[in-house]
Amino acid sequence: MNAGSNETRPGLARLHIWVAGRVQGVGFRAFVQHTAYSLRLNGWVRNVGYDHVEVVAEGSPAVLEHFADIVRAGPAGSRVDNFRMERETATGEFTRFEVRPSR
Known about the structure:
Blueprint: E1 13-22, H1 28-38, E2 42-47, E3 52-59, H2 61-73, E4 79-88, E5 97-99
Parallel strand pairs: 2-5
Antiparallel strand pairs: 1-3, 1-4, 2-3
């Protein structure tokens, strides 16, 4: 299977999360990256426009649900006003969790 394949990876799930609120200038992306790293998830996080953050993470379904709860709460000093999450087909394309440039 190619790293960029769209085939389903057994035991691997993917979440796509959008968060809006006071999520910039409060260490939100670093918090998400550290959390993902500690949970051994792969993917990325980035700022998207004013007061919006986008996250894509892959890992086991149970760990991803825990990760989503932590992201929804956010770090101290942040405020999550809107949280949207979609489950997608995992691709296994990521080898780590990174902070990507803002879009």
